[in-house]
Design brief:
Helix content: 40-55%
CATH topology of the largest domain: Rossmann fold
Bound molecules: S-adenosylmethionine
CATH class of the largest domain: Alpha Beta
Number of helices: 20
CATH architecture of the largest domain: 3-Layer(aba) Sandwich
CATH superfamily of the largest domain: Vaccinia Virus protein VP39
Radius of gyration: 25 Å
Distance between the termini: 74 Å
Strand content: 5-15%
Length: about 475
Amino acid sequence: MTPGRQGKPDRSRRPAPRKQGPRKPPAQDPARRVALDVLRAVSERDAYANLMLPEELRRRRITGRDAALATELTYGTLRAQGLLDEIITACLDRPLSEVDKVVLDALRLGAYQLLRTRIPPHAAVASTVDLVREETGSHVAGFANAVLRNVSEKDEADWMRQLTPDAETDPIGNLAMRTSHPRWVARSFAEALGDKGAELEAALLADDTRPAVHLLAKPGEITADELAAITGGDPAPYSPYGVHLPTGGGDLAEAEPIKEKLAVVQDEGSQLVTIAATNVPVDGGSGGDTRWLDLCAGPGGKATLLGSLAATAGVTVDAVEKAPHRAKLVERATEGLPVTVHVADGRDPGLDGGYDRVLVDAPCSGLGALRRRPEARWRRQPSDVADLTRLQGELLASAFGLVRAGGLVAYVVCSPHLAETEGVFGNAARRAGAEVIDAREYFPGVPLLGDGPYVQLWPHRHGTDAMFVALAIAR
Ligand SMILES: C[S@@+](CC[C@H](N)C(=O)[O-])C[C@H]1O[C@@H](n2cnc3c(N)ncnc32)[C@H](O)[C@@H]1O
């Protein structure tokens, strides 16, 4: 390949049009083939890698080492995308946006192998070039070969030194690059943590870890100790209903307690915020504490715990969900529990007010669950937050309208972004004249909860998703 301007690969021609029709996966490299197909689906059709990859592995009967390699390459490449794109850009003589999408996905896959795996460089380059050749033809394969050879001239540490902003003058930019996060996400974490150093780094690095599987032992059905004994897991450190499963603990769908609906998969953070919402004492009210409302219930995780607790306490729960298919999931999840599902907009659900407790588990950016969705950090945009905070505010205003005086509004989001957390809730509670209470009291035994009155959980501190909860008593 003749180097182009500035000694960089020449890519003056657009790739030839790709052949139509399904391609046959090359039998000799199923792991990289499926990885590239998933990367393409993510970038071209907004697919979710954590849903698509397991399905494709099953469909193509890829197992064992090939499945492990495909998983590592797909998730690793998606998480590191920002960093890989900077490095690839440094090896091009034109903007990244001018590179054909499938070629770019293949280059990311190749660069990831070169920089973050022990795959020998010649194998990383040759296998990527083969994929590009199959997709586009020989002339573009030469281009891919040249770019990847440039990438391979330095290791990750050298590339970091060249591309990363100075830690002294731009600590957030430095950590955003080193942990491969968009700068705005790193900044939002820094603001929530009040830290731009070691703790911010730990929080960002936690997004690259695989979360342990947590189970909820449904109250009234099975205890956490029993569930732990049956599944080989450990009782959770904080939730009295939680069990942590060992990593690689077999096929969950086959576990008896799950088949029998005695237990469900649920992050311990979700359990803790729901338990907190049911433990705050609510005074007054003619009926005591008998009517609860879950205003954003789909797919029904927290409604299941609320319903199980309600069943043992003589309480009824109304569960509102706007999306009909998600409302069906709530119905299925809460079957047999005292939960009535309503397909309605939580901003005006058409229900009689006077609830003793209202949970608003609002739609949010999901920045608190980035470790579950490898591509999410790059897909979310700062503008999403503005739209979401408007909706969150409207849902909270509705909640304060539906709760009785002396009743509780619990606001939950799976995000640490201050606009979605303290910002929205502070305004809504002030407008409603509600009394914000210190939520930390309702997280007994949970360490590192900060100064209150809100609670922000974190993967790197608590091993949970970064759930936020705020509690207020209506006046
Ligand atoms: C964060 S999820 C709730 C998760 C749920 N509480 C659980 O634990 O499984 C937010 C839900 O709110 C729903 N939603 C979005 N806008 C809504 C609205 N205006 N009214 C009611 N539900 C809405 C979404 O469809 C989504 O299912």
